[in-house]
Specification:
Two copies of one chain form a homodimer. The first copy, chain A, is α/β, with parallel strands linked by helices. In chain A, 37% of the residues lie in helices and 18% in strands. Chain A is built from 20 helices and 19 strands. The radius of gyration of chain A is 24 Å and the shape is globular. The mean pLDDT of chain A is 96. At the A-B interface, helix 2, helix 4, helix 5, helix 7 and helix 16 of A face helix 2, helix 4, helix 5, helix 7 and helix 16 of B.
Chain lengths: 520, 520
């Protein structure tokens, strides 16, 4: 047994049996170990932005970490932007980054770089397996660090080639890590929350992280109905349970003015697995924090604490036992069949109508996503995975990972075209693994968000030079060709009716398909 | 005038008039400034791996820095792997990385991250423009740091949004940086080199960096012919002048055994703009350094010193004035027209035959490149840009930048398919800018280098699981579709004759085209 075998076996001993990978020479012993470790499934991505984004999508749905296998500093670098999103989603991920053999490092070979410096901004834990024997302990440490109570983190284990190829000493065995359970919330914060909910002043409850799942949403609604508080979700969420039979929850708006105005009335904000809402960007003369300065913040559950337990405790505190109101759930109600041109509205309606129960909806629609979010509140029950860190290019990879986590569920990706370009290579992995993913490209042929933001920062209307940075219509990308080139069947639609037909047909079959929706 | 205007004007004052970009909200004031600064050309890349690789290709050919404009930490992260290659190529590049407004940073908004930690591994200089007024001085500092004598470096200037949008105080003007010239080599090292060349023991001269240009190659050949020394180039070179009428220079081989055996006879190695050759990777039981341990190293020119001057001084020291032999130059001799299947050999012959004089040949052929390098020694004179840092995905972006630097020259990219996937988005920029680039995809549908390396590290033959990490034939990518999807005309060829015809036709026209060469 060598260090690479020990790594595989330690991962398996800790229930990590899926590895997203793009290996290179320094990882070849890990690759060879795969042939001796049939239980470890290894999925290839054609660029590391796919590898890390897929690991994020997998872990959000499987509720356990995936591993990634990356090739030295540059391999890690290519995957960093989706690791940034994973960090903001509190997703547990273990990166295994191959490095040169320890004795080779001082020679500064061409691929050598400061891997630690690259890894630290996205990782809670960064370490090295200095010897083959140390692999078991270091891997278990790294895995332990992917969980801090309820919160997930990224760990990066640097794995020198000689630690992989050297024989392990007799008696060294895989180490099992005992995951820390979610921590209970602090009683005084729960008491403060209950007191605020009873004092008559306007209270806002902001839910985030795992408090976006059905049971937590219901508790939030119960508390609100019993006390008159308002409940909102964070602006960007890693995973929301939504649709008919669930509590429909509005979110804190993205535009600063709308958010500040919506939050202005509140004197107390209770955070449950959420953080104090701040503007995504700064704008001249606008606020950074969106709650009023005199609004008291009570953190009922930090990201590391159990948000469900916090909500149960608050509900117990504000409603006498046995007197809880039934939470108001969304009815099942689909919008009318959309007609005419494809707009954010008709597209949202078509997808909301056609997606089956249990769909995993990956939302990287950016400017085109709002109407869908509205319609989907009453659509068949589904999960929504969102863009948490603002690093575009998460959609196709997240869908890839989610489909591997939940092979029996349909995955639908709402993919803005500008963002989709960042990681279109993920379509190839969907084809290779025969994943049941429908990708809808919102082809408006521009970075529409930037036209909005250009005005928002007070920079005026774009001229010719500026427009060349905002529009991608020259040449107009052909997503049907791109998709076919990656091995995924594709079709182009230019009306809402054709889009509905294409969606209906895609929902009836299994396997990856892409629909390019040409938008106004 | 705001800070963004001042940045544009400072760049222009320092002869930086091309900016490769993928901007976001925090860079919108820079984008708006473009409308007021018509002399600044801004080229959009659909992913930052294209942006940074194109900057590298541009600077290698234009011999002056390009700027990049990147969106916060994640935008920089996506471009790091090609910045790693640029660092190894000693290419001068100025990255401008937008950041949140300074007062917004403490709120840890979703896109916030430790940009400095991400930038440092690839950058000689990392700094911030803390105020609008400081932009001129900081930009000039950053540009000065892109040059250390003969050596180029990457500088990363972090540019907070409020420094961009705030008004500049009266009297603040663009600052011009005086680039440091190449330093002269140390006389004692030149004298040591001359003495070694005269002492009768076998001497190796290794040329790198700018010593791969015609005049330097000729001086190397003169020295070798006069003294019996051997001349080699480094394994990977940023830019080589090659072909008929130039000195054909073999390189230090990639395989360790071949390199160690080739270098074994030498008792002295003289480095001119090159470093002590080390193995690209470590392999069990093989050496890291490839020169013999008892071989004396004389650094006649460090990377920062003038390699041409060093060679002139050595030539003067070893050959009496007026007695220099004429260097042996490569004759013009094309291989016979290749026939039959497309292999590395027939592909190399076809490209060597068809490329016109003055071609810029971007070589990311990986395993398929050796025969071309052989044939090209006697082909029409051309420049070769190579993969310097081992981070794959440089080919299409380098070609994009080189074509912008030299609009009157044909650019031909030899692009391995596995590596090409990393940055295929660059084809779109070639279409948008109507660049005169012929991309030849070496479609062997595997990471062929890794099959070689798996054996090389002693990990044995790949089984089913391992093969899934090395082969990309399921599904087989369709590069013609991918290219058309990006707006670049494309054709597929399956014989050497068809490849020759496609190349001949591509050479006759202008504008981007892709040829997918299906290889055995």
């Amino acid at each position: 047994m060598n260090g690479a075998d020990l790594l595989c076996q330690t991962l398996l001993a800790n229930d990590v049996n899926l590895c997203f990978a793009n290996p290179g020479t320094s990882e070849m012993h890990f690759v060879a170990a795969l042939d001796r470790t049939a239980d470890m499934r290894c999925v290839l991505g054609l660029s590391e932005i796919v590898v890390t984004g897929a690991a994020d999508g997998f872990a959000r749905m499987a509720e356990k970490p995936a591993a990634t296998l990356l090739h030295l500093g540059p391999g890690l670098a290519n995957g960093l932007s989706n690791l940034h999103n994973a960090r903001r989603a509190s997703t547990p991920i273990l990166n295994v980054v191959g490095d040169h053999a320890t004795y080779h490092l001082p020679y500064d070979a061409p691929l050598a770089s400061d891997i630690e410096s690259l890894a630290r901004p996205v990782s809670r834990w960064v370490g090295r397996a200095e010897t083959a024997d140390s692999v078991a302990v270091r891997t278990a440490e790294a895995l332990a660090a992917t969980r801090d109570g309820a919160e997930g983190h990224v760990s990066t284990l640097i794995f020198p080639a000689d630690s992989a190829w050297s024989a392990v000493s007799g008696g060294v065995r895989p180490v099992r890590n005992k995951p820390a359970g979610a921590r209970p919330p602090a009683r005084e914060n729960i008491e403060a929350a209950c007191a605020a909910l009873g004092d008559g002043a306007p209270v806002l409850l902001i839910l985030g992280s795992d408090a976006m799942r059905s049971r937590a949403l219901e508790l939030g609604a119960i508390i609100a109905q019993a006390t008159g508080a308002t409940v909102l979700s964070e602006n960007a969420s890693r995973r929301i349970e939504r649709g008919a039979g669930r509590v429909p929850l509005p979110r804190v708006p993205y535009p600063v003015d709308a958010a500040v105005s919506m939050l202005a009335p509140f004197r107390t904000a209770i955070l449950v697995g959420a953080t104090d809402p701040v503007a995504f960007f700064a704008y001249p003369g606008k606020r950074s924090r969106m709650l009023p300065d005199d609004c008291r913040i009570i953190t009922a559950a930090t990201l590391a604490e159990d948000p469900l337990l916090a909500l149960e405790m608050i509900a117990d505190g504000v409603v006498p036992a046995g007197r809880r109101p039934a939470p108001t759930l969304a009815p099942f109600e689909l919008p009318p069949a959309p007609q005419g041109r494809i707009t954010a509205d008709t597209l949202g309606a078509a997808v909301a109508r056609e997606m089956p129960e249990g769909t995993i909806l990956v939302n990287e629609a950016i400017t085109g996503g709002e109407p869908f979010s509205r319609y989907s509140m009453r659509a068949r029950p589904h999960d929504v995975l969102g863009l948490t860190g603002g690093a575009i290019g998460c959609g196709i990879p997240l869908a890839t990972g989610a489909a591997l986590a939940c092979p029996d569920r349909k995955v639908v990706t709402l993919q803005a075209d500008g963002s989709g370009f960042y990681s279109l290579q993920g379509l190839w992995t969907q084809a290779r693994e025969r994943l049941d993913v429908v990708t809808v490209i919102l082809a408006n042929r521009r970075y529409a968000i930037l036209r909005y933001e250009l005005a928002n920062v007070g920079a005026g209307a774009p001229g010719v030079n500026a427009s060349r940075m905002l529009d991608i219509d020259d040449p107009a990308p052909d997503w049907v060709s791109l998709s076919k080139g990656m091995g995924v069947e594709a079709t182009r639609v230019e009306t809402a009716e054709a889009l509905s037909d294409a969606l209906a047909s895609a929902m009836k079959r299994r396997g990856p398909v892409l629909i390019e929706a040409i938008m106004d």
